[in-house]
Amino acid sequence: MDQENLPPHVIIFPLPLQGPVNSMFKLAELLCLSGFHITFIVTEYIYKRLIQFTNIHSRFDQYEGFQIKTISDGLPEDHPHSGDQFMQLFDALRSKTKPLFKEMLTCGDLRHVTCIIADGIMGFTCDVANDVGIPIVYVRTVSSCCLWVFFCLPKLIESGELPFHDDDFDKLVKSVPGTEDFLRCRDLPSFCRLGDISNIYVQLYKTEGQEIARAFGLILNTFEELEGPMLDQIRSVCPNLYPIGPLHAHLKTRLGAEVGSSSEQTSSNSLWEEDKSCITWLDEQSPRSVIYVSFGSIATVTKEQLLEFWHGLVNSGVMFLWVMRPDSVAGKDWEENVPEEIKEGTKKRGYIVGWAPQEQVLAHQAVGGFWTHNGWNSTLESVYEGVPMICWPYFLDQQVNSRFVEAFWKLGLDMKDTCDRVIVEKLVRELMEVRKEEFLKRADDMAKLAKGCLSEGGSSYESLKRLVKDIESMAVKDELERPLV
Questions:
Q1: Signal peptide span per the entry (predicted)?
Q2: Which domains does the chain have, with CATH numbers?
Q3: Is the peptide bond before 14 cis (omega within 30 degrees of 0)?
Q4: CB–CB of 416/392 below 8 Å?
């Protein structure tokens, strides 16, 4: 194929964490299905885990023009890459990965790049894009409701609502337009509790609005019917939005259309080895009888928290499937301190795995509830499958998401700032028994909207079509402006 007739070539550069990498691989495949050539950039640490636990290469081999390039994240090889050390990762990306990224774009190894799609929290990618003259579209893989809170941080500081002046965390927040009647101090991102507006997290996120406005547009993993009011608020700062989520389902829908039938779970972007024996266990359970418990790929709990959760689950009498990562509990000797009564209770009605194929689990007819940390991918997957939630957020955007789940979307119960076996038992029963039909009906209604937005003419379907058209227009414009050789 002549160079002039090649399709658009897009660089995709996710934030190197499980959630963003997962969702941006879905975006990459959607753009591959649109005929684009994709260069997907991951850090060496992420790449090693991908090739260890996934079929990433064989899966993308079918797409002409797809390639993965690795880049250093600037951290030592023995660095744990854990969530509580996020700022170390971010600082290393900004100081050490930035020049490597520029070198990658200018060394001549890549064919001409039409545009860059990068995580909006990595502002250095926009600096590089501007330096080399390539258009950039940002992606934010957090919820729009949390992103809007980030945009409002300067207003929260200016109004005096940050830092907090007392310990009344149930006080309503007034400086986040559209949320005045339900968003409380305890629902703001976790770093807002630190009491210091010079904190590195506050300083990082308070410039989100200005940073994102630098890009050509903003891709969001959400849909209008779920987050329309927050999307309208964000458009006041960044008018060119592409809400194309839920990305995991959008991809499965398009793949299903390609083969003429619904697409099954055939691949994974997980950085952990999935234990699929849990699906066999679920097959043996009654419909909507199991609560699925997973706090994601980063959250850690103390031994004391673990035992409170465990007692509450067993005492609820509800069947449960629990993801307990090898590194999810702080300390080394916790297994020796598990009381016999909860071990016996787990044998009767529980199943524990190190990691699960989550999309497949949430789609299973036996699952009637999801106890989640409310990472945005997990929240969207639950919404799409019509599974009500118990929310126990760990950090950052998850505090905001959990409040929206309970107070705005009415899809579950928010248990933030609580770790007590009696409350766990009560909320599990409330979700799975007492108010089961109410929550299932509400979740089913939202799931129908999520599925509708992906069909032809639906809001996310049309946003993706517009994104593809805009990138194609960039390619045409670039071709016209490129000097003749």
A1: none
A2: 3-265+455-481 (3.40.50.2000), 277-449 (3.40.50.2000)
A3: no
A4: yes
At residue 463, the 3 state secondary structure works out as helix
Q: Which amino acid is at 286?
A: S
What is the pLDDT, as a whole number, of residue 59? 84
CA distances from 385 to 11, 284, 326, 359 (A): 31, 20, 27, 9
- Kindly give the pairing relationship between strand 412-414 and strand 389-391: parallel
Closest CA to 98 of 41, 47, 141: 41
Span 357-374, pLDDT tens digits: 999 999 999 999 999 999
Q: Which two tokens stand for residue 92?
A: 């290393």
Angle at 152 between CA 150 and CA 153, to 5 degrees: 70
Q: Is residue 194 within 8 Å of 93, Cβ to Cβ? A: no
Which of left, alpha, beta for 178 (phi over 0: left; psi -120 to 50: alpha)?
left
Determine whether 284 is exposed, middle or buried from the number of CB atoms within 10 Å of its CB (0-12, 13-18, 19+): exposed
Residue from 231, 221, 213 nearest 145 by CA: 231
Mean pLDDT score across all residues of the chain: 91
How many Å apart are CA 329 and CA 327, to the nearest integer? Answer: 6
Which of 226 and 19 is assigned the larger pLDDT?
Answer: 226
Q: pLDDT digit string (tens) for 85-97? A: 778 888 899 999 9
Beta-strand pair 367-372/290-294: parallel
pLDDT in tens, 23-43: 999 999 999 999 999 999 999
Interacting residues of 336 by C-beta distance below 8 A, sequence separation 6+: none
